[in-house]
Amino acid sequence: MTMTDSTSSHACRTFEVRPNxxxxxxxMLIFFLVVTVLSLVVALRFLLLGVWLVLPFTLLELLxxxxxxxxxxxxxxxxxTLRICPDDxxxxxxxxxxxxxECRFQTHWVSIVLQLDQQSWxxxxxxxxxxxxxxxxGACLTDEDRKAFAATIQATLEECRRMS
Length: 164
Known about the structure:
alpha+beta
């Protein structure tokens, strides 16, 4: 989880939430190339020794690894932006440059709800609610981070309500 906070204008605060990306796309490509070269060297050695069946399984293994890394990289492009201003709140969920969801709420009518599971089997949910409409934010956060984020945006909301 990466959560950044910036003051975008005189009275607005912007929060950016995204999953933890410990491996960059370039690092992922380098990792894949190193594993590919090492695996093909070992498979080629077995092929020269007459054990030809190792090569197809090595290629299958590399295909599965490549697809897995691609799906991981694609999933890590997800981000949520929450901009809180005295007049309104703007929530945008993105995957790369594609906007998945965009919602706007009035600051005075929004409530922040942190739903906790009674048995602690499931992760908590952080919701923005207003006029019967509800959206989940911070889905990629841990429970502890979600609690801290809820407290932060609640304090920001109260500050914005006092300003207007």
